[in-house]
Please model this.
Amino acid sequence: MLSSAMFAPAVAWQNFWRNKGLSIFAVSVMTVVLLMVAVALVLGHSFDQTIKGVESKASTVSIFMRDETPLMNVANLESRLRDDPRVRSVVFTSKAGALQRYQNDPSIPSDMLQGLEGYNPLPATVDVDIRDIKDETAVVGLVKDLPLLDKNGATNYREDVIKRIVLFGRFVALVGAALLLGLTGVAVFIIMMSIRTAVFVRRKEIEVMKLVGATDWFVRGPFLLEGMFAGLIAATVAVVAVGGGYHPMVDWGRSYLPWVPLSYDAAFLGQLVLMMAGFGLLLGALGSYLGVRRFLHT
Amino acid sequence: MHTLSQTPEARLLSDTRQAPLISFQGVGKTYPNGTVALHDVDLSIFRQDFVFLVGPSGAGKSTLVRLLIREEKSTHGRIYVDGQELGRLKHRHLPYLRRKIGIVFQDFKLLPKMTVFQNVEFALRVTRGVDRLTRAKVEEVLSIVGLEGKENEFPETLSGGQQQRVAIARALSHDPKLFIADEPTGNLDPATSWEILQLLLQINNRGTTVIMATHNKEIVDVMRRRVVVVTAGTIIRDEEAGGYDEAPGALAEVANAQ
Model:
């Protein structure tokens, strides 16, 4: 005899097992959907990392100072920028420091360095790291008209590139969200139809339950668990497949797309397991809830 | 015909201090396809009453039963069961109304994959869960309906009468105040029908109100209990200790129609 607490899980498992064909179909379709979701999440995370890498480079603006700028003025500028909440850090590099850095750069050929003996063409620099790339234009606007700025020197601030990155990031996030929403809808629909079939198979039992005074939650409980069970199995398969393919995919990306700063993030796998388990459970529960709902209210 | 002390009006007078268990007040029911199933029905049924609900097929008996268990809502009028107005009952409170009502049908509605014991236990499980008293309760109701020793059998191995007894045991398991039997003898032979009726009388004698919808003329005539006759959605006769076809006019047509 089953205890009351075990009734819903036991019935859910019995139903799942009795309707093997239907259960396997539902789990298979959900697995495909969750695989796509997991791939989307991994690609999204990799893209996010890449964008962050590009942003961190692009969000550092180098301000080249005129040689005749008094040190006091530079200190004032530094102080002003440090006080701005949009600025993460400010690093001043003197003319001598810039030259030393240039000379120590292994990527600069030695014949280019020979011409610099006794001559330093490099300006002193204030490197400003901005927290959010979207604020870059505003922060640059604060300093670009200052007389101490070397208008002839180049800065690595590229407004058009930054705007494109921000726009592309938004576009990818929007497409990803739409894709996830669509896939979620498909998964919920599949579970709903499968649970509706299970309800139909057990309609006589449910009719008796309602007649003798079972609450809606008592009737709904086993179906909800059945859907969540299917969602969890599908999520497990999807996580194993995508988790196993994550490292090889990053390696492949690095070798075939060397200009894209891809990196393997082991910590993300833990998050992926939690997200997929939660997502699978939620999809299963939502699909089941909708599948039983119509029957309970007739 | 009924004497003054037996008329429903006289009953109402004598029961002024006792609220009816069931009260229909100007109840009408029209289905979405336009079929009018009941017109302005007024009916009071008191505690411990035994009422036969008779009438031809499609007269509105089943609609009355469905309204009582709130499987349907009335289109107009009010229905009270044990002081609760069903029209105002929230969906989430419906199970608690149904736990006050035991109901059996012509087709028994037993679960074929469960044993006799499990069928009865199932009703207890869904309402109050299983505890140490459950087995004793199941055994008690199976003993009331005379099915001791059949606990481990499956419904398909039982006769029609025995299956109806299981359904009755299940309906009794949560000690209902009201017992509704919708054509309980419709699929049974005359001898078995009498056995089932004896069981319903026994339940009534234990203090439970019983409403039995039936086409069985012989049972109604022999029992001489309260008879409510429904024809074309209207109560045309409500008589204490009545018979199936004692009323003039329309009732004779009802009897002939059977």
